[in-house]
Amino acid sequence: MKTNKIILGSATLLAMTLTFTSCKKEGCTDPLASNYTVGATVDDGSCTTATPTAGATTPGAYAPSFSGVNGVLVAIQSVSTTSTPIGNIDSYIGTAVATFTEDGGATMIAAGDVDVNTKQLGIQSNNSYVYTPSQSDPTGISYTNDVTWNGTGGTWPSFTVGSTMGFSTVDAITSGNVSTTSNYTLSSTGVTDADSIYFGVYGPDGSAYHIVAAGSNSYTFPASELGSIGTGTGFVQVVGLKYDPQTIGGKDYWLINETVRTTSVEIN
After folding, report:
1. I want to staple 203 with a disulfide (CB 3.0 to 4.6 A). Which of 152, 211, 227, 234 is the partner?
2. Domain 170-242 adopts which CATH fold?
3. pTM
4. How many Å apart are CA 180 and CA 17, to the nearest integer?
């Protein structure tokens, strides 16, 4: 599923200036939008990733499963790009997913309170754990190279497990709209420091995805895989995955750090 991309110099100074010179900063206030404006308190109607009218929904991050007894701990950095007079500025939103199972994911096991980098995840009805940004915490979890997970224990034993592998860098998606009758090449300008790369296309009626080895910035979906995803507004996604498998207290843990870029497209 090793380094964070850091915005330096004048871009950072401009962002700080825009944030602090007005108590009512206008912009896109939806953290899931592709043009989310960090620090905006007044929505200006510019958000570009509203739920598509044709029925497709914004895809979540890739959630792998593994056979056997394991805990899967996924730290996720979603990247959005905002255009400014001095160029594009990337903003990061941190989320997380965790699952614990003894039967390869058929049944999830509760592990008490689970947190990553001190942010507590919410337990779902199926005993999976999710952290979702909120209005009071719009940028979510702050990740550096160090990611530390804790569980207080339940049916699954208590644990503390961490990794310093960092995150891959996924640059802008350059592909255009999708035709379901033609091959479609999904491309990023660059994916670096990844163990593998996920490419996904999401339509109103279905999706297609492939995971490839590191070293490729694109994947071509054959038309035969796109014919059943439906037409209308959809999404394409490129995810850089880093893996750190560990065994602690007789339990296998898969620590996965993801850098996720998602862009809305029209599917014809």
Report:
1. 234
2. Immunoglobulin-like (2.60.40)
3. 0.75
4. 45
